[in-house]
Amino acid sequence: MVNTxxxxxxxxxxxxxxxxxxxxxxxxxAERDDIELILHxxxxxxxxxxxxxSRQHFLDSDQRIHALSGVIFGxxxxxxxxxxxxxxxxxxxxxxAILAAGQCGKSALAxxxxxxxxxxxxxxxxxxxxxxxGLAAEMGIPAEIWHQALITADEGAVIARTANLMMQHQLRGxxxxxxxxxxxxxxxxxxxxxGKPAEWAAYWDSLSG
Length: 209
Fold this sequence. Notes:
Layout: E1 7-12, H1 17-21, H2 23-31, E2 36-41, E3 48-49, H3 52-69, H4 75-83, E4 88-89, H5 92-103, H6 108-120, H7 129-138, H8 143-152, H9 155-168, E5 176-181, E6 184-187, H10 197-208
Helix pairs in contact: 2-10, 5-6, 5-8
InterPro entries: DSBA-like_thioredoxin_dom (IPR001853), Thioredoxin-like_sf (IPR036249)
Protein name: DsbA family protein
Domain DSBA-like thioredoxin: 7-184
């Protein structure tokens, strides 16, 4: 990594539609060798059952997210949100899986992306450990090592730390982002760059140039 002194703190939830929309922007940061990217997962949902009105609210938001960012919300996901008898959202188990992937020497961001695609495109129940174990297998993580990592991952402590940092930096909602450079901390309005990859890249070039 080129030492430019730029550290990006990304605050997200794996079941936040706007964070799904931010995915291409975050992947750009991860691919750069002049930026240190630190992920801070937050627990937006804790076994929350969605009624029909809540589901429609999310679907309406998804349309706006797609229009701005271009990310695709799959037919299986939309059908599930419209017609399934029960829809429950739980961020805590997916966050545990993201932490476990990191403990297994794999990319936490790569696991996050797989979880988002499983949820938002394939309509999978991503707090089901069988689904997450399948994603881990796709990443080449041996089952025994994976299950041990799931046991030891402490998502509760990480979620609490994220909440404290967001309060400290007066951040509200997901996605949120701060940038550290030369002892200064500033907020970045991630959503203002949706659909603007060239402007996004140019901004980070200006910091590290």
